[in-house]
Amino acid sequence: MANPVLMEVLRGAIVESAHRGAVAVFDADGKAVLEIGDTSRPVFPRSAVKAIQALPLVETGAADAYGFGNRELALACASHSGEPAHVELARSMLARAGLDGPALECGTHWPSNHDAEIALARSGGSPCALHNNCSGKHSGFLCTCVHSGIAHHGYVKAGHALQEMVRDAMQSVTGAVHGPDERATDGCSIPTYAVPLRSFALGFARMATANGFGPGRAKAAKRLLSACMAEPFFVAGTGRADVALMEAAPGRIFAKGGAEGVHCSAISELGLGIAIKCDDGAGRAGDAMAAAILARLLRDDEAVAAKLLELANAPIESRVGAKVGALRPTAALG
């Protein structure tokens, strides 16, 4: 089954590129509210599921033991831009557990935020693991290990006690098997599992409603999503799509993108979870697809829907700032 074209890229009035994809919108009872394309096809969620992966940080009591508030929990769910505030918060999280940057096993890359990258280079500095977009998640992993009395060396490897906690959370929340046959390695070295797209939509509907969760997990899920919505900058960074989506309806939309055009969202007031995969892995198109679907689901609020549609129909500019084209959702997105 070929997925439909969901997003077009216009240069002038001519379609220059087209992006196919699939969309799943589910409620917490497992009912499909909207399915476009093949939502049964397994996909790697990449960073879009970090809020589920952060559940052990709260459930073990580590977050409370180290005095973590909304910013720390948002960073634990983040793919941040490596801006100074992100780096220093990750450093602070580790310090509370008696650790420092070298304990991170996520690898190193330059900040994705251009200004932060240039400032670091001009200062004569070089990137470290704290600049990695996943350093907040990994800091949360390490804090969970220390608080739980688990040896943290090798915490990224499949079979490590920490990764078993994360796998169990993912499997329980999504209802999909996360086993060796589904497993590969993510960009930050932890295991990632390919399961049907619809499973992630169901998982985020459950995260938003706590349907089927015990009291501890219900509290943890609400706390994590609320922290992300309260501190969207720490989930992503300056100018990032996840920030814009959450700021379009403060406290109402949770949004988190991942690599290769994956995006997961939740709308608590509607009890819905959304999962999107852009087939060709284009992040720009995946973000725009998410904005279009969120606008469709929140169309009764005209002001919010208008903000989201602006994001879905984002302009394309030349090097001198002139509008030369735009993204455009197709009729398949409604």
Description:
The structure is a single chain. The protein is α+β, with helices and mostly antiparallel strands. The chain has one domain: Beta-lactamase. The chain is 41% helix and 19% strand. The strands form three sheets. Strands 1, 2, 3, 8, 9, 10, 11 and 12 form an eight-stranded antiparallel β-sheet that branches. A two-stranded antiparallel ribbon has the order 4-7. Strands 5-6 form a two-stranded antiparallel ribbon. The chain is globular. The model has no long low-confidence stretch (mean pLDDT 97).
Mean pLDDT: 97
Text of the CATH class: Alpha Beta
Secondary-structure class: alpha+beta
Gap between N and C termini: 20 Å
Counting DSSP E segments of at least 2 residues, the number of strands comes to 12
| Pattern of helices and strands | EEEEHHHHHHHHEEEHHHHEEEHHEE
The fraction of residues in strands falls at: 15-25%
- Share of helical residues: 40-55%
Instruction: Sum up the overall morphology in one term.
Output: globular
Biggest beta-sheet profile: 8 strands, antiparallel
What gyration radius follows from the Cα positions, in whole Å? 19 Å
Number of helices: 14
| Overall tally of domains | 1
Give the CATH architecture. Answer: 3-Layer(aba) Sandwich
User: Could you list the spans in which at least 5 consecutive residues all have pLDDT below 50?
Assistant: none
CATH topology: Beta-lactamase
